[in-house]
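Minutes, project check-in
Item: structure for the 304-residue chain
Input as provided by the requester:
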Amino acid sequence: MKRIFVINPKAGAGLGQRGLSRLESYFRGRGSSFDAVVSRSREDVVERTREALRAGAEQIVAVGGDGTVNAVVNGFFETGELVRPSACLAVAKAGSGSDYFRGLTNAARHDWRDIVLRPAVRPVDVARLESVQHAGANPLYFLNMATFGMSAEVVRRKASMSPLWPKSLRYLLPTVRGLFFARASRVRLTVDGTVFERDAVCIMVAKGTYSGGGMRFGSRVALDDGRFEVTLFGPMPAWKMLVKTPKLYSGELHNEPTIEKFIGARIQIDANPPLLAEVDGDVIGDAAVSMTVLPQVIPVCFPT
């Protein structure tokens, strides 16, 4: 198998040259090649992934966090089509969150390197996100989660924190802070053509299971079932939101009066004032967007 590693050296606490050497030794010691691309930016990851696929790569290994995985997935596409439909994606557990990896393995302990070498390959869904205001602009693709409002602000603040903070606190501390400063917007949420108007401080659109370092928002959908799970948080006092924080990790949000769940394959979100948005850990702005599930389009490596 022609395998290319696309590496984000700044993921997590930073891989470094020593970490790269250990990875190379591990794979070469097991009879695998180790052809690696070390990224300089998100745009570099996207383009180098496309180049590798055009050159015949059969497996792309995204070595980084959820943002690296997202950039690699966008590199699988060019002008709306897969560059190499038969190529598979393998995901390393190498970021501060690694939430998509957690969903692939059902939160169990697996060595991602073993999955790369001996995968069970299955096609999974990809989400396509497009700007409502800018028709014809290049779409973004994501495997895991798009979030709006307070959650996107948490991602923005997390990005500015020192990597010396423990991984769990890099999500938890900005989340707790956000509870006290979140402001509601009037949202027009369209789910498979049905319109709902709500006041909301946060919206999670899940294709994967986990976000925010283990918070569970996609417990009612699967990676390959053609559906999103949408969680909408209405306004509530900060203390009440704080009390509910453990439920963000357990996913037990279904009976909360200020939290609503929706299931659908096509989602549109318009808000006034606009809600900041992020996709798989990258903040993308505050425009109205539409999201569509593309069912089972990318082969992904699961544990055997």
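Outcome recorded: The longest strand covers residues 289-302.
No further action items on this chain.
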